[in-house]
Design brief:
Structural class: alpha+beta
Radius of gyration: 16 Å
CATH class: Alpha Beta
CATH superfamily: Nucleoside Triphosphate Pyrophosphohydrolase
Order of helices and strands: HHEEEEHEEEEH
CATH architecture: Alpha-Beta Complex
Helix content: 25-40%
Strand content: 25-35%
Largest sheet: 5 strands, mixed
Shape: globular
CATH topology: Nucleoside Triphosphate Pyrophosphohydrolase
Length: 183
Amino acid sequence: MKRQPLLTLLRHYLPIDATERQMWQDTLVFVETQPHCFERWLLPGHITGSAWIIDPTRQCALLMHHRKLDRWFQPGGHADGATDVRQVAFKEATEETGLAAIQPIGTTIFDIDVHLIPARPEMPAHLHYDIRFLFEANASVPLLGNHESKALRWIQLEEIENYNNSDSILRMVNKVLKMRDLQ
């Protein structure tokens, strides 16, 4: 497997706090030691790619109400063997939202998270080593969604905690708020 591009991105990433630093280190070791890290069948975990999509004004982010997990999250999914994780995040975002005009903001990793996916009848509990990239899209374009979500919604950054108050989601909100403050 071609892990080098992801390893390069990981080695240049700067976590913002101790929690993210630990997840970054865990992910780096995982990718370095697991030749099949991009494969869904690899247990106890595998690489996934997500898209944190914001509007051009940096006021809103796009979340989907995930059908299987019954919670609000950013679009994303399994690499399924693909080694370009930014492209995985883009592909998942376009499939899950119906948005064709999603633009990347930079080429670096935006966030890293390692989280446990609960067991289901067809799959034991396992970890997702989630590599997240920042994208931008026009919030006035209709959202189509697909079978993976119950709903899609542009949500004001300050209101996202009412939909998902996990540290993982709020960390990304805070990163965008800091970006917005620097403009």
